[in-house]
Amino acid sequence: MTNHGKLLWALALMMAASLSALIPPMSSPDENTHIPRAYLISRGVLMLQPLPSAGSGEYGESKGATDLFSGGRVGGMVDQGLLDFVDIHVPLIRNRDRRLSAEEENKRAQMKWSGVDGFCAMQGTGYYLPAIYAPQALGLAIGRGLDLSIERSYYLSRGVTLLACFALLWLAFNWMPPNPWVAAILLLPMSVFQLLLPTLDGLTTSLSVLTMSLFVNAADRGRKFSASSSCCLALCIFLLATSKTHLLPLVALPFYLAWLRGSRRDLHLGCWVAGGAVAWTLLALLSTNDQRIVRHRTTTELLLYYGADPYSFLQVVLATVVDQLNFFQLSFIGLLGWLDTPLPANFYPILWTGLGLCALISVSVSTLRQDWQARLLLVAVSLASVALIFLAMLVTWTPHPAVVIQGVQGRYFVVPMILLGYAASGFATQQSALRRILSGLVVASFALCSLSALTMTMLSRYH
Questions:
Q1: Is the dihedral of CA 95, 98, 103, 107 positive or negative?
Q2: pLDDT digits over 415-440, tens only?
Q3: What does each C-alpha distance from 171 to 18, 290, 400 come to in angstroms?
Q4: Where are the beta strands (DSSP E) in 287-446?
Q5: Are 219 and 176 in contact (CB under 8 A)?
Q6: Domain boundaries, the chain
Q7: Fewer CB in a 10 Å sphere around the end CB: N or C, the chain?
Q8: Which ranges in 75-226 belong to alpha helices (H)?
Q9: Tens-place pLDDT, residues 79-121
Q10: Which pTM was predicted?
Q11: Measured between alpha carbons, how far apart are the two ends of the chain, in Å?
């Protein structure tokens, strides 16, 4: 990498850290359960526990940090200091106009690790492989080990997660620079907002870019692809498929490479990845108990129901799209906070237009004869992923019988859109000077507009 490139990465990291400092803790959906889950993993507790019986001295006393989602039945024992830290932010989650008073901010800054545990319900986090929480858990473990305050430990966890995301993106860009379509997806206000917080979206988005960079290189038979690269690709796919259920179709990629290259190595890796991902998914479905939505049929029963009648599934998906299309487009471009903070209204058409231009100039047909199969596979995986988004929320989050599917958000479509972005350009890496200049200007303009919208919205919402 040139010195110019290193300078750009350093500036981007500094800008990201500055933007992150504008966002208070617990500002992303379900962050109040992801942070306790990361704490459990930092203590070596990888699987969630059942809700302890009332008054059980073994579990200590649980305070109000889980009041926001009453009725959860799985979680674990978390330091009471961290529970109090989460708990102080619950009123802000419930009321977007609420701000912490100076007294509350001072109290938060003085919160320390107590050494006393209380039970915390972490609804929905049991579906995610513990490994995906490694950066957050590392930050909390270091903070606890150094006896830092809870607040400083939290921001350390946020910083480690941000560094991990940047490291993954740096590796991906070195393998294959993204086309304008992919760059625009990464620069969306929603994508950047999630990248700045210690949740899973930033990590999975960064991992998906690295996965696509590795795959496109591997699918080009004119390039060498080492055993270590194959293993890295398999690991990335495994982490994605076990962290986001709708990304299970990615397990098809190693099998395609095995067929394309006649590689037993990729075939074996594909079998291991597919077997491990399916095994974890089944384990998570059977062991996770999320009672925020009262349902009278189990997930397995609903899967069998819609499997026997796929037309009903298509009907409810279509009804959902028609009913919630506006929400999908808002929460894809940018609906910040707990989905309660839209951007200024004039930014949405501007950003959609910019995204369309980035997509248009990313399409390349110069290598289509060589890579049409790989591109078609990426399109198929993307569409299958979108279908799984709707199916997963239908069978785990929506009461039956369903009229529309509940819980689907626009940000869930970020990774499928990234797959389509790589399918648009395929193996093409060489561009004319004019096209490079045009691409650079369009992406730079999109970045300026997107980051302006994000900054204005965060300052208005949080300050």
A1: positive
A2: 999 999 999 988 876 677 787 888 88
A3: 23, 36, 44
A4: 335-336, 341-342
A5: no
A6: 25-161, 176-462
A7: C
A8: 80-87, 90-94, 102-109, 134-145, 150-175, 180-187, 189-195, 201-219
A9: 999 999 999 888 877 777 777 888 888 888 999 999 999 998 8
A10: 0.91
A11: 38
